Amino acid sequence: MNIILLGPPGAGKGTQARILVEERGMVQLSTGDMLREAKDSGTEMGKLVADVMAKGDLVTDEIVIGLIREKLETTEATGFIFDGFPRTLKQADALGELMAEMGKTLDKVIELRVDDEALVARITARSTCGNCGEVYNDNTKPVPADGVCTSCGEKAEFKRRADDNEDSLRTRLMAYYKMTSPLVGYYYAKGMYARTDGMGEIDAVKAGVADLLDS
Length: 215
Fold this sequence. Notes:
The protein is α/β, with parallel strands linked by helices. The chain is built from eight helices and eight strands; from the N terminus they run βαβαααβαβαβββαβα. The protein has helices at residues 13-24, 31-39, 44-54, 61-74, 89-101, 116-123, 166-189, 202-214, and strands at residues 3-6, 27-30, 80-83, 108-113, 126-129, 135-137, 158-159, 193-197. It is globular, with a radius of gyration of 18 Å.
């Protein structure tokens, strides 16, 4: 099964993707991770990515689609999770064409729905383990007093993103809704779109995602 996870910054897409990777053997295709990996890979595509990024230019849709193609061709998995792509209708069309060309299907597009005000409060209180990326929250899951991550078991530096502040987050939310709203209608018309509450505890959101995948 191949899926797209939609949701604004901080909705928990990364957390739910990690759960699907661990429990269902799926592979997460994060645009940012793929670009960083490609840049250091030494492949022809990697050299192209490194050159574009060194110049400070925007990575084109064609390059991202090329990276996705490489991953689909070379990675064994029960399914793929697209995280951070597509963001526009043009990208959605390109992904659909690639999947069809490779004889693969896109099965579900799941949006994690959130309350903006509650999300702002949640994100401005979060920090992550510098080793494994485990997410902590000052209010609901504080950083351990001994500084040892509960996920990787290592002594870690816990970091806050520079843009995890209220003004920056509201700007990112506005950009997300402006860019992603057309995708909801696009995939709804194709019968792929579903949504679940992204504001619950991690296990509750996990159950909601599972229900959609297994329905």
